[in-house]
Design a protein that fits this description.
heterotrimer, A mainly alpha, B mainly alpha, C mainly alpha, B: mainly alpha, Four Helix Bundle (Hemerythrin (Met), subunit A), 7 helices, 0% strand, elongated, C: mainly alpha, 2 domains, flat
Chain lengths: 538, 205, 94
């Protein structure tokens, strides 16, 4: 399909010289692969910033009593930590980086449907980040409301709520436009012969995700605009003194923010599917089930938001309805886990780093998922709501799930994107360190929450001291391992094309082209006449 | 290096643009949809006060504006037909009429709001803050929703203006109707929102 | 997706659509000026929905486009409707 011998290779997208040179060749490029890297680098930067904030929070919690900061600082920290990790790292997530890079290649196209819009999305992403940054370092100081900005406190607090919320609004716009671009790309730009049911499952997951980005984000957008209107114009949408209902704020906020967690996890699960298939060296079990479960999660995910609000004062009827629907949405996720297991069964397992990362994902994600059931049941939720139990749950799912999948995908597609290979030994050991550190950090929090330690408090009662100490030490192990992971990737070595074009024996289109790919991905758009994941002759 | 080839073959795909515009319309439906949810909840909780507050609004102006937007939807739809039939001059006239109608709508809105503000009814005014909760919510929603809608009208005028220029210079023509069609779709969306705003604010007496 | 043979709406059909919309508008105003209690809102919303459907099908060309567009619009409206209904599970039963 590539047909080129090494002496006649086109320049890779990294080397390509177009109209611009230097940094302008990157920030003005509409090549989906360069845009993907712009996102990747920005996201890793924001992840590290968020990580540092988290470490400082954990440092405060190392023992009872005030250690290094007072409550105002702590409140600002957990707010900005949440904003950074959620809006700047995991919501753009695998989609903005790996989706941008891989979608056109995996469907046999030269780029996305709207390349200029794609670049504009990244500009909006950076603009949103800058606005939030200004909110942190200027004027009334960083917001202390939590990333959830609940009214009426968010209407009253004398911190930079307007700036932060407006920054989030701009980021939402970026997300919407990316979703729009991906939907049109998947509909219009598949290579001849690639029907919907021949697409890789990563694409299916990104398709479902794109619809959520498109339809859910506007709701939080308008909600944030209403918060701005309440603060600047005194309107009173959510201010009880003017007739507003703070619970309505929560409804509108979570109508987006619950589907948002599926924006975070669907692409992650899609990447895990790709990794498991490749390293089982056989075709996937239950292709249609996995594809349909992606859509099912996307759809049912719109109906469960109230499980974040069980103690808010909603009617009993609403609570029961949401609880029931929440148990329903767990089913398609479970279907995926069954299909992964069935794919591994009787596969010829290849024990490479991406495989181990995928295994770590499944284990940690399932703990997160099971604890989600505890939270989905009203009676148990009431006991642990607003405790660190919830914090542990979502870190297991979002960090241990989507976050680990992000790094798994990075280890999987690294040779393809950069034509380099990292030390597999260090990759595996750093994963072990991360796994140990991660569980040491977050597992104690389930117990702490069950015992009654509240979340978003800068201090706690003495009986919680031991587990908190363990948790903080765990965070150091985790952070150190993450640094090793990243440094290992940075020190990857350039190997020959023969070794790097398809180091894993992949079955999707990206492994049929050079590493790194040339500017237009394919010399000739391929014609697809085989089923997905079928082993074909090169 | 090698041959200086264009980085991306600028492919022309009108279906892609059309799907793109529909997807964008979906986001707008959800955007205003959030506001309609707020409206329905607060109206459910303050039914009498909403009824009374609505009587402060002038049904005649509301009706005129509704008629104006409906006509403008027709004129923009006609402009597409005109272009598809190759009648560039008629296309331009119809586009101009659409834009003119939009501007008249905005002028009406200006006077409407002006009248309210003159009577001390605006978000955050002392008078409004002294009224009942239902009143405050009604007028808060009124200004916010019609204001946001007006912003979308202004955006629509700008978009149709760009289309006008491109029809004039020939880059939008009988064989490349996409931009006009999609501009028309956006304009109809603006009309659709008003179709619901009008009865919900003006006709609950 | 294949290109459909281009359906061009006639000027006449567009005028008829406008007249229909205007009639429905006048109807809405008339109905709501009669005191029917809660049926006023229901009637106004029903007529508004009919007007919206007419704009979508004719001016926005959904009637003559490929099915996929109607499918997408229906899906989006369905999701929105479900969200409102579920929200009212809270407010109706407080």
């Amino acid at each position: 399909m590539t047909g080129t011998s090494s002496t006649h290779r086109l320049p890779s997208y990294l080397e390509y010289q177009g109209k611009y040179t230097g940094i302008r060749a990157w920030i003005l490029s509409t090549d989906h692969k360069r845009i993907a890297l712009l996102y990747l680098y920005s996201q890793i930067f924001f992840f590290l910033a968020g990580l540092v904030m988290g470490l400082f929070m954990k440092l405060e919690l190392i023992a009872p009593g005030e250690q290094i900061m007072g409550p105002q600082t702590y409140n600002a920290l957990f707010t900005v930590h949440g904003l950074t990790m959620i809006f700047l790292f995991i919501i753009p997530g695998l989609a903005a980086s790996f989706g941008n890079f891989m979608i056109p290649i995996m469907i046999g196209a030269k780029d996305v449907a709207f390349p200029k819009l794609n670049l504009f999305s990244w500009y909006l992403f950076i603009a949103g980040a800058v606005i939030i940054l200004i909110g942190v370092f200027s004027g009334d100081g960083p917001p202390d409301t939590g990333w959830t900005f609940y009214a009426p406190y968010s209407l009253k607090t004398n911190t930079n709520v307007v700036l932060s919320v407006f920054g989030a609004f701009v980021l939402g716009f970026s997300s919407i436009l990316t979703g729009l671009n991906f939907i049109v790309t998947i509909h219009r730009m598949r290579a001849p012969g690639m029907g919907f049911f021949r697409m890789p499952l990563f694409i299916w997951s990104l398709y479902g995700t794109a619809w959520i980005q498109l339809l859910a984000t506007p709701v939080v957008g308008i909600t944030f605009l209403m918060v701005v209107a309440d603060r600047l114009l005194d309107i009173g949408f959510f201010d009880p003194a003017k007739g507003g209902d703070p619970v309505l704020y929560q409804h509108l906020f979570w109508i987006y923010s619950h589907p948002a967690v599926y924006i975070m996890i669907l692409p992650a699960m899609g990447a895990i599917t790709e990794i498991i298939v490749t390293f089982s060296r056989r075709t996937v079990f239950g292709y249609k089930a996995i594809a349909m479960s992606s859509l099912a999660i996307a759809f049912v995910g719109y109906l469960v938001w109230g499980h974040h609000m069980f103690t808010s004062g909603m009617s009993e009827t609403a609570r029961l309805v949401f609880s029931f629907l929440t148990f329903l949405v767990a089913i398609p996720s479970a279907i995926k886990v069954f299909n992964w297991t069935a794919t591994l069964y009787k596969g010829s397992i290849s024990l490479e780093p991406p495989f181990w990362w995928a295994m770590a994902f499944i284990f940690i994600f399932m703990i997160g998922g099971f604890t989600g059931l505890i939270l989905g049941s009203v009676s148990t939720d009431v006991h642990v709501h607003d405790t660190v139990f919830v914090v542990a749950h979502f870190h297991y799912i979002v960090f241990g799930g989507a976050g680990i999948a992000f790094f798994a995908a990075l280890h999987y597609w690294y040779p393809k994107m950069f034509g380099k290979m990292y030390s597999k030994k260090i990759a595996n050991w750093s994963l072990i360190g991360l796994f140990v550190g991660f569980n040491a950090t977050y597992m104690p929090m389930f117990f702490l929450g069950y015992m009654g330690m509240p979340r978003r408090y800068y201090d706690y009662l003495p009986q919680f001291a031991d587990l908190n100490l363990l948790s903080t030490v765990g965070s150091w192990i985790m952070a150190t391992s993450l640094i090793v992971v990243i440094v290992n990737l940075l020190r990857a070595k350039k190997l020959s094309h023969e070794e790097m074009d398809d180091p894993w024996g992949g079955r999707t289109l990206e492994w049929k082209i050079e590493s790194p790919p040339s500017l237009e991905n394919f010399e000739e758009i391929p014609v697809i006449n085989h089923e997905p994941y079928e082993l074909i002759e090169k | 290096m090698e041959q200086n080839h264009v980085a991306h073959t600028e492919h022309f795909d009108p279906v892609a643009s059309k799907i793109g515009m529909w997807l964008f319309i979906f986001t707008e439906i959800l955007l205003f949809g959030g506001l309609f949810i707020v409206y329905s909840v607060y109206r459910y909780n303050h039914q009498v006060e909403f009824h009374l507050a609505a009587q402060e609004l002038d049904v005649t102006i509301g009706l005129i504006n509704t008629i104006i937007l409906l006509i403008s939807s027709m004129t923009v739809a006609m402009s597409i037909t005109a272009l598809q039939l190759g009648n560039k001059k008629l296309t331009l006239i119809l586009l101009a009429v659409t834009i003119l109608l939009a501007l008249i709508f905005l002028v009406n809105k200006y006077f409407e709001w002006g009248a309210k503000i003159h009577h001390d009814i605006y978000p955050g005014s002392e008078f409004l803050l002294s009224l009942s909760k239902g009143d405050m919510l009604f007028f808060g929603l009124y200004f916010f929703m019609t204001g946001l809608h007006a912003i979308h009208i202004i955006a629509g005028v700008a978009l149709l203006g760009v289309v006008f220029v491109k029809v004039k210079n020939g880059s939008v023509n009988k064989d490349r109707v996409s931009l006009l069609e999609n501009g028309g779709l956006y304009w109809h969306l603006v009309d659709l929102i008003w179709i619901f705003l009008f009865p919900l604010f003006y006709l609950i007496h | 997706m294949s290109e459909h043979k281009n359906h061009i709406s006639s000027y006449k059909s567009q005028v008829i659509v406008l007249l229909t919309l205007l009639v429905l508008t006048v109807l809405t105003v008339t109905i709501t000026s009669v005191h029917l209690g809660p049926f006023n809102t229901a009637a106004a919303m029903l007529i508004a929905s009919i007007k919206a459907a007419i704009v979508l099908l004719y001016f926005m060309h959904l009637k003559f486009d490929e099915k996929i567009y109607r499918f997408m619009v229906t899906l989006v409206l369905a999701i929105y409707a479900v969200v409102i209904v579920i929200t009212f599970f809270d407010y109706l039963y407080r």
